[in-house]
Write a structure and sequence with these properties.
The complex is a heterodimer of chains A (about 220) and B (about 80). Chain A is an alpha/beta fold and about 220 residues long. Chain A has five helices and eleven strands; from the N terminus they run βαββαβαββββαβββα. In chain A, the strands form two sheets. A nine-stranded mixed sheet of chain A has the order 2-1-3-4-11-10-9-6-7, sandwiched between helices. A two-stranded antiparallel sheet of chain A has the order 5-8. Chain B has a single domain, classed as Phosphoribosylformylglycinamidine synthase subunit PurS (Mth169, Chain: A, 2-Layer Sandwich). Chain B contains two helices and three strands; from the N terminus they run E-H-E-H-E. In chain B, strands 2-1-3 form a three-stranded antiparallel sheet, with helices on one face. The longest helix of chain B has 16 residues. At the A-B interface, loops of A face helix 1 of B.
Chain lengths: ~220, ~80
């Protein structure tokens, strides 16, 4: 049975959704308070969930970077451990430089909370291996600072190394950009393909009766060998 | 005591959506001579001591480590 460790900062609010989602898929989970100084040794996947760590003060994710647990997370990631940052977790990972680029205020300045289609751009990684390139999934977004930015050289590197995971699209997979993200980018991974970040919330798309279960195939990627 | 005034703003070339919204609002108030608006933030620190050179080095490190995200933001430091 795979073990998923879920970080919790002051202001995190998606840790229980994330726990529910991974337990539904058969994993065991542990919620880890940010004061911890190590990542549990049996961790197969470490998730930084969504929310508003430290009230988004200064910049989203900027203060969480200095929480005690983040040193352990950096060491865990550098040693090849798998890390997934969802929404605020993605912002924390860019602030920590575990993922390249940054997330700016949405272009139209609005907080966006709705379902949005995403197109799978690369699947040769642990996260999206259950999906095919070109697949379109319907996943909720809920963010104020989801406008991905990276400089030209950085973007080229993302493309060259198959690091772009998902782009915002319409139901047919055509580009549709809700927040001004560069190249309509919704999620990326690092060059080594063990650190993943995305603004949409796959853990909120686990039940058809609640709108979509497209998150199941995504999160399952981490639990299958 | 040294006062450090830090201005953080989005880099030139990084679209400033808030600046753009303010520009349009000014236009709607008929201030048609405004060509560009950049919105940033100001952080004011009170520092112990009176060694300005050391203070500048400290504040620069603070900006690099925390106060600015240099992927998208520039910062200017003024010591008073």
């Amino acid at each position: 049975m795979k073990k998923v460790t879920i970080l919790q900062f002051p202001g995190t609010n998606c840790e229980y959704d994330t726990k529910y989602a991974f337990e539904k898929l058969g994993a065991k989970t542990e919620i880890l308070w940010h004061k911890a100084d190590k990542v549990p040794e049996d961790t197969d996947l470490l998730v930084i969930p969504g929310g508003f760590s430290y009230g988004d003060y200064l910049r989203s994710g900027a203060i969480a970077k200095f929480s005690p647990v983040m040193k352990a997370v950096e060491a865990y990631a550098k040693a090849g451990g798998k890390v997934l940052g969802i929404c605020n977790g993605f912002q924390v990972l860019t602030e920590t430089n575990l993922l390249p680029g940054a997330l700016k205020r949405n272009e139209n300045l609005h907080f966006l909370s709705k379902y949005h289609y995403l197109k799978v751009i690369n699947n040769n990684n642990d996260f999206l291996k259950n999906l095919s390139v070109g697949d379109v999934v319907n996943i909720p977004i809920a963010h104020h600072d989801g406008n991905y930015f990276i400089d030209d050289a950085g973007l080229q590197e993302l493309e060259d190394n198959d690091q772009i995971l998902l782009r915002y699209s319409d139901a047919n997979g055509n580009v549709e950009n809700p927040n001004g993200s560069l190249d309509s980018i919704a999620g990326i991974c690092n060059k080594e393909k063990n650190v993943f970040g995305l603004m949409p919330h796959p853990e909120r798309a686990m039940e058809v009766i609640l709108g979509s279960d497209d998150g199941v195939a995504m999160l399952q990627g981490f639990l299958k060998a | 005591m040294i006062k450090a005034v830090i201005n953080v703003s989005l880099k030139a070339g990084v679209l400033d959506s808030q600046g753009k919204a303010v520009l349009h609002a000014l236009e709607s108030l008929h201030f048609n001579n405004v060509k560009d608006v950049r919105v940033g933030k100001q952080i004011v620190l009170q520092l112990d001591g009176d060694d300005k050179k050391a203070a500048l080095a400290d504040v620069t490190k603070m900006c690099e480590d925390l106060l600015a995200n240099t992927v998208i933001e520039d910062y200017e430091i003024e010591l008073v």
